[in-house]
Amino acid sequence: AEQVVWDAGVAEAVVLRIALVYGPGVGGNLRSMLDAIDRRRFPPPPPVPNRRSMIHVDDVVRVMIAAGERVGVAGHTLVVSDGVPYSTRAVYEAMVRALGRSVPAWWMPVPCWRMLARTGDAVRVLTGRRAPFDSDAYRKLFGSAWYQPSNLQAELGIAMSRTLADAVPEMMPAR
């Protein structure tokens, strides 16, 4: 899509490469993880050195508005994240704390997660239905997807105002 914009020669275009978005109403993998932790069906992940780029929805909106208003950014591609390299363990801990629980001192070792993923793969082969945890989920959970964010302060004149730790409470399941 980005290349289509550039090939079309849209003079005032600004491309925003937006990281994983969190905040109220979050869905997808973050919602699934939070719900599983809430139901105590998500074992503590180990402290692996993976990194994820993320951004709060409020900051996405602020960046979009600033990109549309700022003179001199046309023709630029901006990587949009809050700049924090979140590990799976850090995300897990933020969610556990927001649920009012203590963070467990133990974690399920990586080989156990791999075995669980392979079991999920076998379930798919045998039943034709995807298991709740498989190799694809394992890669998403323990892989990295971190990108050096653009200097949004310099490019757009704004700084990110939110981090996952302060936003998780607003993402909590309704009680």
Describe the structure.
The protein is mainly α and 175 residues long. Helices cover 46% and strands 8% of the residues. It contains 8 helices and 4 strands. The protein has helices spanning 2-8, 28-38, 57-69, 88-98, 110-127, 135-142, 152-156, 164-171; strands at 15-18, 20-22, 54-56, 77-80. The strands form 2 sheets. It has a two-stranded parallel sheet. The chain has a two-stranded parallel sheet with strand order 2-3. It is globular. The mean pLDDT is 92.
Helix content: 40-55%
User: Which blocks of ≥5 consecutive residues have pLDDT under 50?
Assistant: none
Count of individual helical segments: 8
Mean residue pLDDT: 92
What class, by secondary structure content? Answer: mainly alpha
Counted beta strands = 4
Tell me about the largest β-sheet. 2 strands, parallel
Q: How large is the share of residues in beta strands?
A: 5-15%
Q: What radius of gyration results from the CA coordinates?
A: 19 Å
The SSE string, one letter per element, is HEEHEHEHHHHH
Distance between the termini: 40 Å
